[in-house]
Design brief:
Strand content: 15-25%
Radius of gyration: 19 Å
CATH topology of the largest domain: D-Maltodextrin-Binding Protein, domain 2
Shape: globular
Structural class: alpha/beta
CATH superfamily of the largest domain: Periplasmic binding protein-like II
Order of helices and strands: EEHHEEHEEEHEHEHEHEHHHHHH
Oligomer: single chain
Number of domains: 2
Number of helices: 13
Largest sheet: 6 strands, mixed
Length: about 290
C-alpha cells in the first residue's frame, strides 16, 4: 500500500469523494479557502473513488461520502465515521406540471440515480413508504435526469446538490419533496478505514478539528460561504442569498450525531441493500 509523503513540509493526505458537489465537498473547500489545512501542516488532495478499489488507496485517505462508508460497513468492511457534515441527504425530487406531490407519481416514470448509487435506494424507500409505485429509470447524472424531466420524457427526477433548487425551480419544474425531510442518514463528512483510525489517531483528530472549524465558517461567515459557492461550485451570483440559507438548513452544524438516529439509519440502509443485522453503532461511529 502506498504511503503519502510530505511535500514542501506539508503532510499530503487524500480526500476521496463520490460526487463533486456541495453535499460532499463544501467543508473541504471552506477549509482550503480559509487556510485551515495549511495551519495544521496538511496538503489535502482530492481523489474520485468511484473507480479505485479501496485497497489501492493510500493509507492516509479520508472519505467524504459517509453514506457509502456506512454501506461498506454493512457489507463487512472496517470503516469509522468520524465527522457527520450532513445527516439530511441533499437530494431533491422534482416533477413537471401537473405533478405536485408524491401521490401524483403513482404509475409514472421517474429519472433516478444508477442502481448502485445510495440515492437510488433512498428514493425507492421513500416512494415505498408513501405507497407510491413509480417506474424508476436510472440516468447517469443530474444533467441527464433534468433534461429528461424538462423535455417530458419522465414525470419526475431526483437531483443532487450539483443543481440546487434555486437553479432548477422556474424551469417548468416543481419541487415535490426534499429527501432530507424524509430520511435522516449520515450522508457526508469524514470516514476512514479502521487501520488509519488505529494507526494515526492524531491525524484523524486533526482533520476532524479542521472540519469543525470549516463548519463554524459555513454558519458564521457569509462572505466565505458565498465565495465558495460561487467560485468552487459555479453558483450564479444572483442565487447566492437563497443558496446560503438553503445550505445552512441542510448541513449538520454540530458535526456529530445521536446513537438512535444512527441505529435507525443503519437499519434502513440494511433493508435497502439486503444486508443483515447492522453492527452496533459503537463499532463504526467514533466522533473525532
Amino acid at each position: 500500500m502506498r504511503i503519502a509523503a510530505r511535500v514542501c513540509g506539508l503532510l499530503t493526505v487524500q480526500l476521496g469523494y463520490k460526487a463533486f458537489d456541495i453535499h460532499e465537498l463544501l467543508c473541504h473547500f471552506i477549509a482550503r479557502r480559509c487556510g485551515l489545512y495549511n495551519t495544521e501542516g496538511l496538503q489535502v488532495v482530492l481523489v474520485d473513488t468511484n473507480f479505485v478499489a479501496a485497497g489501492d488507496l493510500p493509507l492516509r485517505t479520508f472519505h467524504a461520502a459517509c453514506g457509502a462508508a456506512l454501506d461498506a460497513v454493512l457489507r463487512g468492511d472496517d470503516y469509522k465515521l468520524v465527522f457527520i457534515a450532513c445527516d439530511r441527504p441533499m437530494f431533491w425530487l422534482y416533477g413537471r406540471s401537473p405533478m405536485q406531490n408524491l401521490d401524483d407519481l403513482q404509475a409514472r416514470s421517474v429519472a433516478t440515480f444508477p442502481d448502485a448509487a445510495p440515492p437510488a435506494g433512498m428514493l425507492a424507500s421513500v416512494l415505498a413508504e408513501n405507497g407510491v409505485g413509480a417506474e424508476l429509470l436510472p440516468a447517469r447524472d443530474d444533467i441527464s435526469r433534468l433534461g429528461l424531466l424538462l423535455n417530458g420524457s419522465v414525470c419526475g427526477a431526483l437531483l443532487s446538490s450539483l443543481l440546487l433548487p434555486p437553479q432548477v425551480l422556474g424551469r417548468d419544474a416543481h419541487l415535490i419533496t426534499y429527501l432530507g425531510d424524509q430520511i435522516r442518514l449520515p450522508s457526508t463528512g469524514l470516514a476512514v478505514r479502521g487501520d488509519l483510525f488505529d494507526r494515526e489517531p492524531s491525524l484523524v483528530a486533526t482533520m476532524c478539528a479542521v472540519y469543525r472549524e470549516a463548519m463554524h465558517r459555513i454558519y458564521n461567515d457569509d462572505d466565505v460561504l458565498q465565495c465558495s459557492l460561487r467560485e468552487d461550485f459555479n453558483l450564479p451570483k444572483a442565487l447566492l442569498d437563497d443558496s446560503v440559507s438553503l445550505v445552512r438548513s441542510c448541513y449538520n452544524r454540530p458535526g456529530t450525531s445521536e446513537t438512535g438516529l444512527l441505529e435507525s439509519a443503519a437499519r434502513r440502509l440494511a433493508a435497502q441493500t439486503g444486508a443483515g443485522e447492522p453492527p452496533p453503532v459503537g463499532q463504526w461511529y467514533a466522533p473525532g
